[in-house]
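Agenda item 2: zinc ion complex prediction
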Amino acid sequence: MEKRKNSQAHKYGPGSFDLERKTFSWSAYNVWNSYGPVEFAKKYIYGGADYMNPRMMTGRIVADMLESDREQIDPTLEHLRTFLPHYEHQEYEIEAKFGELTLVMHLDGFDEPKICVCQPTRATLGCAFHTSPAPYGKIGEYKTGVKWNEKMVAKHEQLDWYALGVHLKFDVDPEKVPIVLTWMPTIWGMNDAMPRPTGEIVNFDTTRTLMDCIGIGKKITKAWGEIEKYVREERNAIGL
Ligand SMILES: [Zn+2]
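Presented output:
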C-alpha cells in the first residue's frame, strides 16, 4: 500500500507525544482519555505499529483523496471530492506553545484568519479581511463512519483543541472562527472488506467560546500531568 504522501512531511505525526520536549498532540490526549494507560503505553511508550481497523482505512482513503484532490475513478469518491467543503489548506499543522507544553494538531481543513490592510483610512474595503466569507478563519474536520449529530459535534473535544490551537496561534476570538464538521455516512456491505461512503454529506456548523478553550486547556494540563507521572513510573519499572 502506498504510504500517505504527507506522513513523512509532517513534522509531528498525527500521534505525536514527546515527554522531554513536552510535545502533546490531540491524538495522544485522546488515546489517554478515551482508551486509558494500557493503550497509551502500547502506542507511545513501546511504539507499537499503528494498527488500522477497517473503519480507519475508510477514513484514510477519503483523507488521501481529499489531500491529493485528483479526479477519482470511483463515482462516490468523485462525488465527495466535488461536493465536500474545501479550504485554503486541505491539511494544516498547528504547533502552539501552551504554558510549558507545545500543543500539536493536524487540521483537515483550514482557512487562515485574514488581516485588514485598509486601515486606518478605510479608503478601500477591498482587502482580504473585508471581502472574505471567513475573515477570522475557519476550521474544517471530516469524519467518516460513526453517526454524528449536533450534540456530539457540540461536545467533541477535538474541536476544542483546534479552537484553542487557532486561538493561541492567531490570537483571534474563538467565537468568531466557524467550525464545520463534515460527516460522510458509510455502509458496510456483507461482501465489502471495509465500510464505504454512501456519498451523502452532512455539514454541522459549530463554534467554541473562550471559556471552552480555557476548559480544554485545564483538561490538557491535567492529562499531561497524569501521563508524565505514568510514563516515568512505567519507564522505571522496565528500567528504561
Ligand atoms: Zn480591510
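Discussion summary: Strands lie at 17-18, 23-25, 92-98, 101-107, 109-111, 138-144, 179-184, 186-187, 196-197, 202-206.
Owner for follow-up: CH.
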